Automatic annotation (TrEMBL):
Binds 1 divalent metal cation per subunit. Can use ions such as Zn(2+), Mg(2+) or Co(2+). Keywords: Cobalt, Cytoplasm, Magnesium, Metal-binding, NAD, NADP, Oxidoreductase, Pyridoxine biosynthesis, Zinc. The active site is located at the dimer interface. The gene is pdxA. This is 4-hydroxythreonine-4-phosphate dehydrogenase. Its EC number is 1.1.1.262. The keyword Transcription regulation does not apply.
Length: 344
């Protein structure tokens, strides 16, 4: 099925020793039943042939240019080749892992910015494998913003949104050690994050006036400063500023009572102050179908919510539902994504 944008989705290789390659093969094999939009993967065609053979999957693989991907998708898994031979075995990253994973992201972003792909969907990377290779960004989210800045010359603040029908969450601070969270939190960061969330939920998700619930940092949202001053001095003024701009924001709300079913019915997205405050509830409620979306970029990027799962890589046990949800959501969002020229 060709996405409404008329363009295929660009799926990255991710960590080749992780579950991304086998999920990619599995999703292509079941593409019709799953109604997945046409995609191509950026990687090494021979690596995908070998992995299909290893897993006993009957998946023809064809090396293509992005422009041929939609026409190829019905017959074979389209692979836009990188100039890197990928040799990593399941569960065992090797010297080809980081260069191939990074080159694949770069190529997918170049394609979406050049209008060859409708959106970028990323397979999981192992962050520590990339760090060991000298990769300087904490994760995809920050790297994609850097690539967007290089392409547009415009400052880009990326926002991580984890999306599911049950719950949507945004960690205001993203990949940060817990000890650094308080130092990084600021009124300006919360306001800018809230603005991007409100704008992108309206423009891309079609929620006319998104309701933002903003979590406190401290137990009981600080008890008026008695259990931490940040909620009173940083979060509350940021919420007031967002409201003064016409954004439907409430908070700071105690985080421990923000995620039960009745509370969730009262908002479209919860802005949380740090990574695990946001990701624990959504991975508890929707691990198998949650989608990671990067807001604030001049293109659509989605990803499954899980990581590389080295413990089950190569066993065929990995569940592809989150990747399927990421592909379907990417096609939906890119159908009414602003163009590069109008974004930001
Ligand atoms: N978007 C990305 O690139 C992400 C990358 N990661 C990376 O993944 C690596 C491993 O992270 P972990 O915290 O261990 O999380 P993980 O999600 O890889 O694994 C956690 C547990 O869930 C299971 N699991 C994960 N995905 C599954 C699937 N599709 N089907 C069945 N079971 C599944 C795994 O087997 C494991 O037991 C880290 O290096 C991290 O940086 C983690 C999250 C997102
Ligand atoms: N825990 C989510 C995560 O680490 C994904 O990060 P990113 O690589 O999408 O920036």
């Amino acid at each position: 099925m060709t996405p409404a944008s008329g363009l295929p989705l660009a799926l990255t290789l991710g960590e080749p020793a992780g579950i991304g390659p086998e999920l990619t093969l599995d999703v292509w094999r079941r593409r019709t039943a799953l109604h997945v939009p046409a995609f191509y993967v950026v990687g090494d065609p021979d690596f995908f042939r070998d992995r299909a053979r290893m897993l006993g999957l009957d998946v023809p693989v064809k090396s293509v240019a992005a422009a041929e991907a939609c026409a190829t998708f019905d017959r074979a898994l389209p692979v836009v080749p990188l100039d890197i031979q990928v040799t990593a075995q399941p569960g065992v990253p090797d010297g080809s892992s980081a260069p191939a994973a990074i080159a694949s992201i770069r190529r997918a972003v170049a394609d979406v910015l050049a209008g060859r792909a409708g959106a970028v969907v990323t397979n999981p990377i192992a962050k520590n494998v990339l760090y060991r290779s000298g990769f300087a960004e904490p994760g995809h989210t920050e790297f994609l913003a850097k690539l967007a800045e290089e392409a547009t010359g415009r400052k880009t603040q990326p926002v991580m949104l984890l999306w599911s029908p049950e719950l949507a969450v945004v960690p205001v601070t993203i990949h940060l050690p817990l000890k650094d969270v308080v130092g990084r939190l600021s009124k300006a960061l919360i306001i800018e994050t809230g603005r991007i969330v409100a704008r992108d939920l309206a423009n891309r998700f079609g929620i006319a006036r998104p309701r933002l619930a903003i979590a406190g940092l401290n137990p009981h949202a600080g008890e008026n400063g008695a259990l931490g001053e940040e909620d009173r001095d940083i979060v509350a003024p940021a919420v007031a500023a967002l409201r003064s701009e016409g954004i439907d924001a409430v908070g700071p709300l105690p985080a421990d009572t923000l995620f039960h079913a009745r509370a969730r019915a009262g908002y479209d997205v919860a802005l949380c102050m740090y990574h695990d405050q946001a990701l624990i509830p959504i991975k508890t409620l929707a691990f198998d179908h949650g989608v990671n979306v990067t807001l604030g970029l001049p293109f659509v990027r989605t990803s499954p919510d899980h990581g590389t799962a080295f413990d089950i890589a190569g066993t065929g046990k990995a569940d592809a539902s989150s990747l399927v949800a990421a592909l379907i959501l990417a096609a939906r969002l890119s159908a009414h994504a602003p163009t590069l020229a109008t974004a930001q």
